Amino acid sequence: MTRVLSLFLLSTLGLAQAADPVSFNVATGSPTGTYSVMFKNIGLICAQSAYLKERGTGGSLDNIDLLMTNQVSLAFVQSDVLKARQQIDQDPRMANIKALLPLYNEEIHVFAKPPVTSKSILGKVTVKGVQAFTDLKDKRVAAWGGSIITAKVLSAKLALPYSIVSVKDQPAAFAALNAGQVDAVLAVVGQPAAWVKGLSGVNLIPLPFSPPLEGIYTGAKLLYPNLSVSGVPTVAVQSVLVTRDFKTPDKKDRLLAYKKCAIGKLINLQEDEGMHPKWQEVTFKTWPWEEYK
């Protein structure tokens, strides 16, 4: 009897597994990050997201690596990370990466400790510290995830040499800043970022838009009352949900259904209570990468 029951259960499990829809793993980021929140927002209004499983990561850099090594099927990525892999690294695998959904702009946040002012016995005033992005020349900048690539691209585009210190995450970056191990922290994150709203004892450093950044970045302004009264100029890069160029009919159908639902429900994503404010910037009309069709 026990043997018959075991065989029955195994048979039932096999049928259940066979009936399960095709599932995809989606690389997002930290549980409180914008990628994760927006992924969950789509899940609230699109039944097609039931087969998508979130995988938390360290951000864009991890996400594109996971996607290209077939460990996930979709990934939230900064478009400058995609372009760097294609144009700088010349990675042939990028030809197989397509944009499922173009999303919002992510602002570049640069943080530094307040400058220190000293006065000599002769009355000469000296200011030490970082007050403008150009002050980063020959200094140390902490970054993590996709922000590491952004820091490299900005350094090259603006011809501004500085040392990039790779760290694990945001707490590690600010620990290094507070310990004097780095002079600034560079982070790419869609505002308003909850962790930025909780900061104190640091300044936001202006990063004005300039012609060398055209084609990758756009002008933006950081608005955090806890760090600045009037806002701080910066630049932003568009994020995108990318996938591999799947040809299998069942995979393709499910991905296109998810895409169609998200685009068709944009007004809900923008107006329903509890949705991330970054949806207000999404149009699904500007594609920074080749579209998945």
TrEMBL record:
Gene3D superfamilies: Periplasmic binding protein-like II. Residues 1-18 form the signal peptide. Pfam families: NMT1_3 (PF16868). InterPro entries: TRAP_TAXI. Keywords: Signal. This is Transporter substrate-binding domain-containing protein. It comes from Deinococcus arenicola.
